[in-house]
């Protein structure tokens, strides 16, 4: 448990030290009026308090990703926790901060508009399509996973829960953001805190420690799946996740002061990192070996681990509350995924969203398509979601780096994580069954070559010298 608390301490230190450094580079201007003030429409642009915006942002980004991903990542051993900590501080939280703040500066624009502003028209049109596809995959994943948990908990047919969750999503997608999301998500946040703190206390009381690995940071996966690049695709939410770039603009439309950006965007990602650490620790500690953890997942996936761990550590009632917390997480991300998709389509069509009928005109076809996608095999959807998610993060990080270059600021804080994640997604695409299925050595060469070529092209395009200014300019 000492290792767990050390990792949490590093995340907190990252917020106060590196987060402050990132904020200084960006240079927030508290005297500027934010879109929540200048473009208030009572639907999507609604001023809310910092605490409320933070909790909504946390729940928006914390779906099943920081639970299921770290459980799957625990199969690799303690090295998964290193990725969560350093990925969150130096990549994920940086990604979230810039995706949120660049949206604020662009009048609350969605991620395709932000990307297009800094990387060009071609990148904008690509992101319009890519972001909607990602959000549809996210929405469907975040229907199927909570529906499965609820079906197991209540012994009710899965189809009924899928229909019920879709019905809620339709409602949450079209009503003003402060009516459901802004009103009830802070309450859900309290349940999330109960779940997270309760489970880690239960683990401490149980006396369980890491299974017999010590601090072995080698690859301990029982089926010998390669750590590179799979770990960095498997654990996305909790380390770095492109899905967050689609969610940050929602809160960029509700934030009242640019100085709040570090707390809301960087801070919410740190909070998600703590959630990811908790579930990775539970996976590493509750079971006697990676083989035992893998055996449980073979009989129901990560959801089976959630159910077994929660009921064992917190008893029947506490376990049910913890499971409900895990159910709420994806639902509170799934509804905002569809909401973001609606806004991206509306931005592309230049269609105002204040009239209800115009919101329905986009939302209804979108949900029909989402229901059709939900009929596909969950494992296939999850794999495509994982790759699409990290590819979105890559594009957003390159866009943030381009912004910093144009401003004459230290762009390497975004360029280096962009390079790393570029290598990850190209290597994964070359190697994975959903991609080209090539041998890992060849795939890695392809990934590194693609990264080098993209980096050189990027630096040449922006004619950036090797040394940049860190001034706020």
TrEMBL record:
Belongs to the peptide transporter carbon starvation (CstA) (TC 2.A.114) family. The lineage of its organism: Bacteria, Pseudomonadati, Pseudomonadota, Gammaproteobacteria, Aeromonadales. The keyword DNA repair does not apply. Its main location: membrane. This is Carbon starvation protein A. InterPro entries: CstA (IPR051605), CstA_N (IPR003706). Residues 4-144, 151-280, 302-426 form the CstA N-terminal domain. It is found in: Cell membrane. It comes from Aeromonas sobria. It is a multi-pass membrane protein. It comes from the Bacteria. GO terms for biological process: cellular response to starvation. Keywords: Cell membrane, Membrane, Transmembrane, Transmembrane helix. The chain crosses the membrane at residues 75-95, 129-152, 158-177, 184-205, 225-243, 263-287, 313-332, 360-381, 387-405, 412-430, 442-460. GO terms for cellular component: plasma membrane. The keyword Membrane applies.
